[in-house]
Amino acid sequence: MMKKAIVVVSFGTTYQEGLRLNIESVENKIKANFPEYEVRRAFTSRIVIKRLAARDGIHIDTETEAIQRLEDEGYKEVYVQPLHVVGGEEFDKIKKIVIQYIHGHQKAFDKLVIGRPLLYYTGQEDRPDDYVEAIEALTAQLPNVESQEAIVFMGHGGVHPANTAYAALQMKMEEAGLNHVFVYTVEGFPPLESVIAKLKKRNIKKVTLMPFMLVAGDHVNNDMAGDEEDSAKSQLVKAGFTVDVYLHGLGENTKIQDLYVQHLKDAMSQKAGHGMCKH
């Protein structure tokens, strides 16, 4: 019988609890949905991998090592499902290695396909609207807000062009009628300052901060909810808002977990796939 595997690739985390609640939970759901596949874990963050090895003696494969190991073990059908939020720098790492195997390693795999991250397609040309689906999944965790309350999501952001996804998410939130939900990023656009300006304009008094990240790790505990004066919580308090923090990553949301499973199913059926496939 042909050996089949799924590599579940995330950025990774050094928070053991975060790993269990946000990454393992998605992996377990994938295992339950695809019992005939071997499911492997990989991280794209070299720093996280190094820290886990040094601190806990745990070895976790990079995306390259995971695929190489499957080749060495004779797997022929491999699907790679990223748990990244946008198709940015970390997703590019995975894409690069998949392309290398498809074009370089002769006959390594009969099939090698990469799934898509959480936010990728926007609904045109018969493609799904990942944003609308993610927003629907998010509504399950949103608290009821009064007229002078708002919810502010923190994304990662960065210089990669794919990080415009967060601005698109804000527009899609508005289109979905979520006028009290705002999105900012730690390292990009939209910045927190522009969200604070919007909150003031709306006469908002109370804000609930939520991570738009797979894991509630370092960024969430420090940049978003920390007590340092440059954290989002501190900046919002200083600007006159009452602040609640929600310390749960997206990976804890069962509906978000289901979306990753769906993206994997799409990759398997070649629906909404990348065309990055070797048959």
TrEMBL record:
UniProt protein name: Anaerobic cobalt chelatase
Taxonomic placement: Bacteria, Bacillati, Bacillota, Negativicutes, Selenomonadales
Keyword field: Cobalt, Metal-binding
Active-site residue list: H156 (proton acceptor)
Binding site for Co(2+): H156, E187, H219
GO molecular function, one term: metal ion binding
CDD domains from the UniProt entry: CbiK_C (cd03413), CbiK_N (cd03412)
Biological processes, Gene Ontology terms: anaerobic cobalamin biosynthetic process
Organism: Pelosinus fermentans B4
